[in-house]
Design a protein that fits this description.
Elements (H helix, E strand, L loop, with lengths): L10 E8 L2 H10 L6 E8 L17 E8 L10 H18 L4 E3 L3 E4 L2 E12 L5 E11 L16 H5 L5 H22 L1 H11 L6 E4 L4 E7 L5 E4 L6 E3 L4 E3 L2
Parallel strand pairs: 1-2
Antiparallel strand pairs: 2-3, 3-7, 4-5, 5-6, 6-7, 8-9, 8-12, 9-10, 10-11
Helix pairs in contact: 2-4, 2-5, 4-5
């Protein structure tokens, strides 16, 4: 990969309420919006998380945005952007909020074992299998004081973790700056160079995970493509790709 990083956040659209920032940005992307375009909303009525789950939020409590990326290369590279984004979010949370966040492979950011941020990359390809664009959705729980019963044991917010009210605009700026930096590094060198930084921020390594489709093992590393390497006791590491490993509670 050889390219110069764009300015992520060169154009920002802000909305009070949308069905989904991904849907709004998807239309802008199809209409030719430039790389780095951002859509931000105070509330989503149909927000989506990974694996088709609904993203829960109350108006003004979360920082929710989608970033338009147009990386050159095959569509198979797109899932790596989950890991790249995780590194960027952890960078931003440490710099802006002074919290020790960790990445749960491939697309969650955690504080003390509870989810504070989710990342959702959705890629559209050209007919030749190369990337047309990627919609990178990021949702950070900021001001929640509580969550619905089904989420209380699994989710947290920056307010709950730090006791501090954080400014959405400053947090957005810090996250976009970190994302622009890490995306630029990925464009220049691929995930190989970012692998060291990802490991430093990882919470999954050393944990026992369940591999969907059967079996369990210990997550020991990620490879140069961002795939999770799991020791399932079979004499060789199992390579897990594209969000098909679940932590064993």
């Amino acid at each position: 990969m050889t390219a110069v990083s764009p300015v992520v956040g060169n154009t920002i659209y802000t909305f009070e309420t949308v069905d989904s920032t991904q849907a709004v940005l998807g239309q802008l992307a199809a209409d030719g919006a430039p790389e780095g375009t951002i859509v931000v909303a105070r509330h989503q009525t149909a927000g989506r998380g990974s694996r088709g789950k609904q993203w829960w939020d109350a108006p003004g409590e979360s920082l929710m945005f989608s970033a338009l990326l147009r990386p050159p290369g095959p569509i198979a590279w797109a899932p790596q952007l989950s890991l790249v984004s995780g590194v960027a979010v952890v960078d931003a949370l440490r710099a802006r909020c002074d919290v020790d966040a960790r990445i749960r492979w491939p697309n969650d950011v955690m504080i003390e074992g509870k989810k504070v941020c989710g990342v959702l990359p959705e890629a559209v390809s050209h007919a030749d299998g190369r990337v047309n664009y990627v919609l990178l959705g990021i949702g950070i729980n900021v001001h929640q004081r509580e969550f619905p019963p089904e989420l209380r044991d699994r989710a947290t917010s920056l307010l709950m973790a730090t006791g501090v009210v954080h400014d959405h605009a400053l947090l957005l700026a810090a996250t976009l700056t970190a994302l622009d930096r890490r995306y630029g590094e990925w464009l220049s060198s691929g995930f190989r160079e970012l692998r060291v930084e990802w490991r430093k921020r990882a919470g999954t390594l050393g944990q026992r995970v369940r591999i969907r489709g059967g079996g369990e093992g210990v997550a020991v590393d990620v490879d140069d493509t961002g795939a999770l390497l799991v020791d399932a006791g079979r004499g060789a590491l199992t390579r897990v790709v594209s969000a098909v490993a679940d932590s064993v509670e």
